[in-house]
Fold this sequence. Notes:
The structure holds three protein chains of three kinds. By secondary structure, chain B is α/β, with parallel strands linked by helices. Chain B has a single domain, classed as Pyruvate-ferredoxin Oxidoreductase, domain 3 (3-Layer(aba) Sandwich), CATH 3.40.920. Helix content of chain B is 38%, strand content 21%. By secondary structure, chain C is an alpha/beta fold. Chain C folds into two domains: 15-190, Thiamin diphosphate (ThDP)-binding fold, Pyr/PP domains (Rossmann fold, 3-Layer(aba) Sandwich), CATH 3.40.50; 249-358, Rossmann fold. Chain C has helices spanning 19-29, 45-56, 67-78, 90-105, 132-137, 154-171, 181-185, 224-244, 264-279, 297-304, 320-327, 347-358, and strands spanning 15-18, 34-37, 60-63, 84-88, 110-118, 124-127, 147-149, 174-180, 187-190, 216-217, 248-251, 258-261, 284-289, 291-293, 309-314, 334-338. Chains in contact: A-C, B-C.
Amino acid sequence: MDKIFEKPESIRDAGTHYCPGCGHGIVHRVICEVIDDLGIREKLIGIAPVGCAVIAYDYWNFDVTEAAHGRVPAVATGIKRSLPDRIVFGYQGDGDLGAIGTAEIIHAANRGENITIIFVNNTVYGMTGGQMAPTTLLKQKTATTPSGREQKIHGFPLKVCELLSVLPGVVYAERVTVHSPQNILKAKRAIKKAFENQIKGLGFSIVEVLSPCPTYLGLSPKDAIKFVGEELTKEYPLKIFKDIT
Amino acid sequence: MKEEIIFAGFGGQGIMFMGKAIAYAAMNEGKHVTWIPSYGAEVRGGTAYSMVIISSEAIASPLIKEPTICVAMNGPSFRKYETKVKTNGLLIMNKSIIDSPAKRKDIEILNIPITALAAEAGDHRIGNMVALGALLGKRKIISQESLINGLKDIVSSTYHNLLPVNEKAIRKGFEYGSR
Amino acid sequence: MATYAVGVVIVAKKVLMCGNEALAEAAIRAGCRFYAGYPITPQNEIPAYMSKHMPEAGGVFIQSESELAAINMVFGSSLTGTRAMTSSSSPGISLKQEGISYLAACELPSIIVNIMRGGPGLGNIGPGQSDYFQAVKGGGHGDYHMIVIAPASCQEISDLTMLSFDLADKYRMPVMILGDGILGQMMEPVEFKDGTKLEIKKDWILDGCKGRKPRVIKSLILKEAELEEFNLKLQKKYNQIKNEEQRCEVLYRDDSEIMLVAYGTPSRICRSVVENLRKKGKKVGMIRPITLWPFPEREFKKLAKNVKSFLVVEMSCGQMIEDVKLAIDCARPVHFYGRTGGEISSEDEIIKEIENING
Lengths: 245, 179, 359
């Protein structure tokens, strides 16, 4: 019998700590498939963020470090500038990239650092217990917006790809989602391109991935997927915001 | 020997540089030196000073409370430092722009038209070199030639065309100071 | 003679350089190949020098968007095995504390330079020593230490900067060079010694897992027992450093009745005081800690046997004095004289203080 599906070499054989229905595992797997496809596992350094994905190194079978909250792009800069022929990618959540680390992401992008950033947007803080994220939708209830996010109090949902795509240092910015098999394949194509850009030395690439967090959306895994597909994509349209590669 | 020198004046009069120039030349003569600037925003436009210690022995404190020599390039610095010069010390003051006379009787005063002499040498902006020349004319801390020879090392090569006029200014000051 | 960096022929043996520039040049000679920093007075000559000479040495210079970014760039560079450094002054060092804690936790060799100015808050750009506690007690969170080195001249800045890189690699930890505005700005003759002779195989770096198992450099240790075990391992290393790396200079060890205690710029002034009083036959000496952490406790304990009292002189409201008291178990009276806000103690003030102690 032909083997048609197997664990990528870049993924460790470990049980998951992510909640049922969480999108992180899918994103991890997609990244690792891309790494295997491109044959870059042995020249790769990944950077885990602070947030639910902090222990991504338990799943990733390549060199990984872990940055302080929000500082992934600065750490990536230090690594890539010191070892320009290695492949460096950062994995960040919405709090890490969109709140505490906005200065770092904007300036790494604006310097046109030749790195790849995978940005997982699930509109809520998972690790700390479901608080508001910078990307939380208006009216969305969280642990710190019990009556729903109000613009007058909490501001607007932050549009990261839209923001970064105006910077000349950014060569590629695309938003994708992992709420359906079809979209997962699209996400894989985007992530692959983001790595290929770095291999070619083209500059800063970011892929924003909309991802379900059933636990803190207060939804079943099935409804969380529906929420991502129907609600999140309205606020955060799926598209290539920039591609000058 | 040990000389504790304060150079003071407007930012832009080359106060930092005159300190560096004499410290560098003294180092090349094998002496111990320290140079401390007034640093920060005050360096441009405001009153600037630099402190130089030149000694035949290792220098402990680089700070100067009572200078043995003070070069006051403008009125405010003259008013600030006249009282601080050590008894039997030397005060060189820029007659070209300081109106009031010195009051101290227990120190040596060299009141010299620094800016005017600089203009005579070819550039009114290099009064600092005139003052250094005059200082070495009065006090043979180091040789005039060490100072002149050192300039090419510490001046950016972009300005090496100005070295001859600087040398002229130093010699002019030296002559004045030696009288 | 504008250029002194590696690969450039030195015209004279001694060069006249300000402390900040001497530090930067010594770092490059010690093999530093990554520098990131954010401008702040009075240390701006360091990034300026690095921006010019680091590329000549084949290294990386980055003017970062913030001190936070700078220290985290150093984190990234260090984990590749590169000798990496950042510099700042007091307010900027506060911003770096997060990163320093992570560097300590991940056991990443790195050099952090603090050319201290007046504080708290924005303070001023005058010289200060009020970041002593922050430096030696651990300014960031967690049970960690940095080696803290306190030079007192441009020559020492050069020599100790080179040493700092070796210590950082040897013990795999951040080392802080703690200077002050005067030391950074002051020019003195410097003779650069040869760089490192230390050969350490860095078998822990991340550079891609080709031909070996993947490595992880991290500070998250979720299991209590494991984190405790890790912290105890750090403490073991710190104890080894306390045993092996205490450094200080003592003037008139044998017959001093009053021992001045000072580091950095105040130690220069105290040296003058001691020499002047000695000429008058007064039995005054000085101990100058060169490592502030580890604090030179052994020497203090020895001195406490014969010295009648200590006078600690700082450009702060009294910080190192606590370590002096701890070092001698308060076995002798420990007096304090400090100026702050960018002010510096004069020789006269210190002499007056000594007279007061003598009664």
